[in-house]
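Figure 2 data, in text form.
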Amino acid sequence: MKLDEFSGGVNGRGPAKAGLDPAATRKGREMATARDNAPTDDQEALDLAADWADISQGLKKDLGSQLHSQWIKPIQLGAFCKDTGTLDLFLPTEFSANWVADRFADRLSLAWKIARAEVRQVRITVHPRRRAMPELRLGGGSTVASGAGNAAVAAPAPLATDPQASGLDPSLTFPEFVSGTGNVLAVNAAQRMAALETPQFAPLYLKASTGQGKTHLLHAIGHAYAAARPGARIFYCSAERFMIEFVQAMRQNEMIEFKARLRGFDLLLVDDIQFIIGKSSTQEEFLHTIDALLSAGKRLVVAADRAPQALDGVEQRLLSRLSMGLVADIQPADIDLRRKILEHRLGRFASTHVPADVIDFLARTINRNVRELVGGLNKLIAYAQLTGQPVSLQLAEEQLTDILSANRRRITIDEIQRTVCQFYRVDRTEMASKRRARAVVRPRQVAMYLAKVLTPRSYPEIGRKFGGRDHSTVIHAVRLIEELRTRDADMDGDVRTLLRQLED
C-alpha cells in the first residue's frame, strides 16, 4: 500500500496544518467514489487504504526515507472497529511492533484522527497470523556434560523439522523464484547449497540490494534442504532476531543453552546480516557459531544488502569468515527478467486478464526492485477486482502513480523540450519563442504538460524555461492537454509515446 501526505508533526490542528495535502486526500477519497456498487466491506478496506496512503507519505517526509522504509512501510492495516473506534495496525515481529508503538504511536494516532474522525485510537501489534518462530533458548530436557569444565547443561530439546516451524515461508521456494542473467550465479549456488552433496564453497553469502530476492533464496534453500534430508534441523532467522535471543540469553544466564541450541542446527540461514555489525558481543558469538558449524560439516547461508568488505564496524576475523566461502551477487533485474517475473506472477490471478501492454508498461517503469514490481501488479489487480474495472494502461497509470513516480529517473525540462521538438519536428528555439502558430503552440503546450508531470518544478519555474512565460500560461497548457487527452485519441497517443521515450 502506498502512503501519502502527513507532515508537520503532532501539533497541527487541521488537515492543512497537519500536512495533509488536500489534492492527495481528495484523490484517496475518489478511490471510494468510483465503486458505489462494491460491497461495503470492500469499500471500507479501500477507504482505509486510501487514508493510509495519505498518512504514510507524509510520515516519509517527516521521518526520512530510511526510518520510513524500516519501520512504517512494513505496517499492514488491520480491522477497524466502529463501536470502539479502534484501528489495528500490524507489524511482522514483536520487536518492530514494540519499537513503532514506543516511538510513533502518538504520531500515528493523531494522523488517523485527522484523516478519519471516527478513529479514536490505534492499536499496534504483531500480525495474528504471523508464522511461528521457534525459540532459540532452551528449557528442560536431560542434561549432558559440557565440554568446558564438565558443567551440567540442559540438552537441546527436540528440534522442529517442519519447514514452517523452522521459520520458513511456505511460498518462497525454488519453483517460485524466477531466474535470469542477473541472478543465475546466486540461484545455482543456492541450489548447490541445498543439495545432498557437500557444497564446494562454505559459507554462502548472498549479496543484493533491497527487494531483489535474497530472502526468497534463503527460504528456498531451507525448503529444498528439508526435502533432500528429511529430519534435518533447519533454522531461519533475521540478524535482528539473533541479537534479541542473544541478549535475552545473556540476561537470563542461559548462554550455554543458547550456544548448544544454535549449533545443533544442520542448516542455519541468517538474513540481513548487516544489522549484526557494531555489536562486539554478538559479533563474537556469531564468529564462534560459524566456526562450530563449519568444523562440524554443517551449512551456513547469510544474506546482506552489501558485500562483506562494505560492512561498517565489522571485526576483521568475522569479515574473513564471511568472505572465505562464496559471495554471490544478485544484480538488479533487467527488463526481460522483470517481464518474466510479472508473467509468472499472473499465474496466481487466472481470473483477471492483464493486457500485454500493461505488463510491458510495468516492466519498463517499475525498475528499482522486484518487490515493488510485484507489489504494483498486486495493487493493480486488487483494485480492478474490488471495483469491477478491467485492467488497462490508463488504470495502471492512475492507480500506481506513487510507485511509478518513485521509479522514474530524474528528467530535466531541457530533455523534455528536446524530445518533444524531435517528435513534432519543430526547432528547439520555438519552445521559448513568442510565435503563436498552432504547429508551434501545441508542441510547446505538450512540453509544458510533460514538464509538470515528470519533474518537481513549480509552474513559475517551468514558465521561465519556456521563454519567461507567466505561470498562468503553464497552468492553462497543463489543463488543456489533460482535457485533450480525455477526448482526443491522437493527442493521448502522442503523450503516451513521449512518456515512453522519456522514461526509457
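Caption note: The first helix runs from residue 22 to 33.
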